[in-house]
Write a structure and sequence with these properties.
Helices cover 68% and strands 2% of the residues. The chain contains eight helices and two strands. The chain has helices at residues 4-26, 43-53, 55-72, 80-94, 104-131, 146-153, 155-170, 172-176, and strands at 31-32, 38-39. A two-stranded antiparallel sheet has the order 1-2. Helix 1 packs antiparallel against helix 2 and helix 2 crosses helix 7. The longest helix is centred in the middle third of the chain and has 28 residues, at 104-131.
Length: 182
């Protein structure tokens, strides 16, 4: 029974499970920044889902994660713009991992890197444009430029991306055992 509705049902079900898994992994923080942001494996389920189901599904799952993470994950915001930039847009861009769809191991690595960089770009721009006025010395360095401040403050996103990439590659053998996606 491999009809289009069967694949759609499976895709939506897997997406919901991966969003829930991502939110759960977001609670397990290896490092937490003072004003939000952390090192975790939250991106991993969305990356795996996007690589499996493609760009559209990945972006949709990432968007759902962004909304849920703000609502349930103790979101920190200074207005609707930071909700959009730090959560909705940033998490949606994790779904860019779908560029690795149907590209094997290289696609998993490529997708993970692209998804991570998409999220980093979103939080970097939001940090520089909205949070820059709150900047302080970071990592022992005096901060005078909001773009540099945001780039340094959001480094945990890149660390999370590196951990996500390693974990995703380690999970490739398990992913190969799953039924084929559309």
């Amino acid at each position: 029974m491999n009809t289009k509705s069967h694949f759609t049902t499976r895709m939506l079900t897997e997406g919901a499970l991966m969003v829930a898994a991502a939110e759960a992994l977001g609670y397990i923080k290896l490092w937490h920044m003072p004003e939000g942001g952390s090192i975790s494996l939250m991106m991993l389920p969305i990356v795996l889902y996007a690589v499996r189901w493609g760009l559209g599904g990945g972006l949709l799952a990432g968007c759902a994660l962004g909304v849920i993470d703000f609502m349930l994950g103790g979101g920190i915001a200074i207005g609707w713009q930071s909700i959009l930039g730090d959560y909705v847009i940033a998490c949606t861009l994790i779904g860019l991992a779908g560029v690795g769809h149907k590209r094997g191991t290289a696609g998993v690595v490529l997708g993970s890197i692209v998804g991570c960089l998409g999220r980093y770009a979103a939080v970097w721009v939001t940090g520089a444009t909205l949070w820059g006025e709150y900047m302080y010395d970071i990592y022992g360095l005096p901060m005078t430029n909001e773009w540099v401040y945001s780039a340094l403050y959001n480094l945990p996103v890149l660390v999370s991306g590196a951990l996500t990439t390693v974990a995703a590659v380690a999970l490739i053998p398990a992913m190969k055992k799953l039924p084929k996606a559309a």
